[in-house]
Amino acid sequence: MNPDDTLTIRPAVAEDFADVATLYCHLIPNDVPAAEPLQRQVFKDILDHPGMTVLLGCRYTKPIATCTLVVIPNLTRGCAPYALIENVVTDNGHRGIGYGGELLSAAIDLAWQAKCYKVMLMSGQANRKAHRFYERLGFATTKTGLELRAPGYLPRTPD
């Protein structure tokens, strides 16, 4: 990566709503629609939720990647919390440069700073490209993830 490709990583703020919403269109192009006022309220709720951080990777000042880190309190493992990473996406025009890896590395660092004993994420079963990306960051398939979806929320098809 050359110096012009520098990525700045920071927590999202309310004013980032439009940029985050645009990035999510790259993540789930055919997502279930919701009215913008509801989306804005939910975004505010996410930002205000204890233990939840929406991270943005920005080139210059423009957000081009995002992920959500959730640190969850836990009664096992000596009461060490664990972390979940969700909604990982890089703008289609900026993929393959290393920005996603930088952003996830920052999220993982935050989890370790919060004394989490593990960081988890899920990826579509057939999305081998994403699996290789996560494996390069140190993730391993050590367990089987299961999910139950509410009617109307179909699994995303692999890229």
Main traits of this protein?
single chain; 159 residues; alpha+beta; 5-stranded mixed sheet; 4 helices; 5 strands; globular
Summarize the structure.
The chain has four helices and five strands. It has 159 residues and is of the alpha+beta class.
Descriptive overview:
By secondary structure, the chain is of the alpha+beta class. Helices cover 30% and strands 22% of the residues. The protein is built from 4 helices and 5 strands, in the order βααβββαβα. It has helices at residues 17-27, 36-48, 99-113, 128-136, and strands spanning 8-11, 52-59, 62-72, 82-90, 119-121. It has a 5-stranded mixed β-sheet with strand order 1-2-3-4-5, sandwiched between helices. Strand 2 and strand 3 (62-72) form a beta hairpin. The mean pLDDT is 92.
Rg over CA atoms, rounded to whole Å, is: 16 Å
Helix count, DSSP H or I runs of 4 or more residues:
4
- Give the biggest beta sheet: 5 strands, mixed
- Which class of secondary structure composition applies to the elements? alpha+beta
Shape: globular
Q: Could you name the ranges where pLDDT drops below 50 across 5 or more consecutive residues?
A: none
The ordered string of helix (H) and strand (E) elements is EHHEEEHEH
Q: Would you count the extended β strands for me?
A: 5
Report the sheet-strand fraction: 15-25%
- Indicate the percent of residues in helices: 25-40%
* Average predicted confidence as pLDDT: 92
